[in-house]
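Quick one: structure tokens for this chain, please?
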Amino acid sequence: MQNDITLRGAIGEKVINNIQKSYLKYTESSGAVFELNGNYATRLFTSKYCDFLNQAPRDRSGRTKKEDTKNGKRVCHECCWAASLKSIKEKKPCEFECPGGIKIFTAPIVVRGKVLGMNNAGVSNPPTDENKIREIAKKFNVDPKDLLQSAREYTARPDYIFEAAKHHILMAADTIAELFLRKKAEKELKESEVKYYDLYENSPDMYVSVDLKTAKILECNQTLAHNLGYKKKEILSRQVHYINHPKTMETPTKI
């Protein structure tokens, strides 16, 4: 299958976000769905800790969000995407620790054996060990006190919450893949209908579709209407054996 439409374009950002919220609402972590080219299909920063690390480099430089994206300075994006490449290559879930000290669980979005994107989310509490915090703060060039405060503001979850979230992340990837497949099929069907209707409507041959029970004409092409001397709308819903040629016939004629 050719990937000529994106996950976001096919399914919609709102729908994907709602799928993500099904597990992020109880982990209060952050997550993203990537297109195969590495662009975001959508992302949600429900974790203040992650949002702080993602925003801090931009605040220091004075760059806008648009400039940040243009210059490729999206810290969290680049880290998560680089680590997700392994999952894409192997077509299976993987787990890694991001530079911010959060464990990230990734699940490939696979349609008919082909990876079309990636779903991932944080599955651990932010670190609160002061040595670890200082190490991360130095890496991101932020104040360790501010970073520690944002970590402590997070309500710690037990491990079983994050284990359950991993299952939901996998299910979400499968759901997104199924929705993409359906939207792809709908698009192809619509294109096929347009193509064949155009062939039918402009064919030099006469075509008519009749209800066998009522003998009413359900559809016909312009060629038939023209040859009988009618406008198309005058033929539809009339019974097939009561169509006269207005110019040459005075009695009913069968088509």
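Residues 36 and 191 are 24 Å apart (CA to CA).
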